[in-house]
Amino acid sequence: MAHIIVVGNEKGGSGKSTTTMHVATALARLGHRVGGLDLDVRQRSFGRYLENRTAFAAREGLDLPTPVLGELGQGQDPLTPALTRLEAECDFILLDCPGSHTALSQMAHTVADTLLTPMNDSFVDFDLLARMSPEGKVLGPSIYAEMVWAARQMRAQAGAGPIDWLVLRNRLGTQAMHNKRKVGGALDTLSKRIGFRVAPGFSERVIFRELFPRGLTLLDLKDLGTEQLSMSNIAARQELRDLIGELNLPGVAVTF
């Protein structure tokens, strides 16, 4: 059975597609067979990313490790047949969820072995995880956390294994600002209550926006003849290396 990684958050602009693409491509570069499904049927950012990559590689004559982009099925359950097709040829399957609550996204969370929830480091994004008092006290889980809890319950009833849930703090400031400390403290408190791990994600970098039209990731730059990476790009590669290590996926050794 393929290991299924779901990247989900009901808020747009948190970095889900960038995270999905970089994790998927990193696993492919490490020699694993990787598939992907874009569950955001309108924006299709992850699907477009992979399509851009395939087109650029063909145009430039490059052999870039590329995840297989699957197609959703038809009818009331478009996810199951798509997963069945990919599982026959993949070690890992990544599902990129839309930034809203949909039946398809809810279904995806019930099949997740690993759940990644990227969030911007602000209390606006934190509000989807937990309700807070005006004084900053965590009152209890909010809408997205409740949905994950329901998915966990369904998996337990079906006899499936637990979900390893990681919340990724994207766009962290470089300085130890007051808001950064408060968000970190609130996440630490909430993680103990509802059962997730907290890990640093990606900082805000222009390089991510520049790579999308060609479907490239940070790990592809040397294939393009970029021998001398900027300090920002080196730091970004280290963030990706740390993230892959933090995922603790079965059979994955970080060697890039």
From TrEMBL:
InterPro entries with a match to the protein in the record: DNA_Partitioning_ATPase (IPR050678), MipZ (IPR015223), P-loop_NTPase (IPR027417)
Protein name: Chromosome partitioning protein
